Amino acid sequence: MVKEGWNLQGNARFEGFCIDLLARVAARAGFHYRLRLVPDNMYGAWDPDTGQWNGIVKELMDQ
């Protein structure tokens, strides 16, 4: 969940169970991460007209 109405940057902009879980796993496993919103603000849906995915699904597939 994105915190609205706050002047926060980076990972501090997000809150919730999954964010807390990610922070604890990262601390125990010893890795760093950076959260960000995808430019189109979509989770990911198949577009039959373009034959492509959008949102975070597209970003993951493009990696």
TrEMBL record:
Keyword Ribosomal protein tagged = no
One GO MF term on file is: ligand-gated monoatomic ion channel activity
SUPFAM superfamilies from the entry? Periplasmic binding protein-like II
Record keywords? Glycoprotein, Ion channel, Ion transport, Ligand-gated ion channel, Membrane, Receptor, Transmembrane, Transmembrane helix, Transport
Subcellular localization, as worded in the UniProt entry: Membrane
Which SMART domains does the UniProt record give? Answer: Lig_chan-Glu_bd
Q: Which GO terms describe its cellular component?
A: membrane
Q: Which InterPro entries match?
A: Glu/Gly-bd (IPR019594)
- Bilayer disposition of the protein: Multi-pass membrane protein
Domain Ionotropic glutamate receptor L-glutamate and glycine-binding: from-to ranges: 1-62
Annotated protein name in UniProt: Jg5000 protein
Source organism of this protein record: Pararge aegeria aegeria
Point out the gene that encodes the protein: jg5000
